[in-house]
Predict the 3D structure of the following.
Amino acid sequence: MEKVMKRHIALVMVMTLLFAAGAAFAEQASQVIPRAKLQQVITDFVHQKTASLGLETSIKRISLNNDLKLPAGTVTYDVLAPDQWEGWGRANLALIVRVNDQVEKNIPVNVDVDAYGAMVVSLRALDRGDVIGAGDVVLQKREVSATSGKFYANVTEVLGLRARTPIRANTPLRSEYLEKVPLVKTGQLVTIIAENQFIRLTATGRARGNGGEGDIVMVQNLGSHKEFPARVVDTGTVQVDF
């Protein structure tokens, strides 16, 4: 009986040692990725996405709360974002984690990003038809997510344009708010210039639309009564390339 007990105790000890060795091996065969590392992967992705836009970004929230335990091996990451996400505001991302090129985790991540960019802002209230001068606007840093549509980021882009609609003071200027001052108006008599490197011809025509400098308008040649597109050069002059 005593021999049986000794054998039983020895067997238990061997099993305990084997279990401990297996646990130690399993521990050595895994790795832990800190939450801070995962958050940095998301942060780097956001900064890369907005780098070419000339914006300053500030991440308000990343929904990653725990460290990540993975098998041993080389870890790589991919971040997937909705096609329509521009890199700021709220979005649902996916963090794909691979070990030795095999997908181990697909983690949903909610982010909230503030983005700031230089915008042309009105210094005073503008009435419809007002032409923008240097004293009417200023360049300021504003939150992009608070301004929808294409905004102007250079003061020189808006100088000489006119307000298409009334604009309140302290308003970021968007492309749909402004238009070129028409140099040619519908029904106006214009001088048509047609030239190339060898010849220059002129004729009198009538504009069939409004247009600012560089715009294309339809004109009618009063001699031939033919209509064709021409580029507005200045007040009362359009040009046809041939």
User: Anything to note?
Assistant: The first helix runs from residue 2 to 28. The chain is about 20% helix and 40% strand.
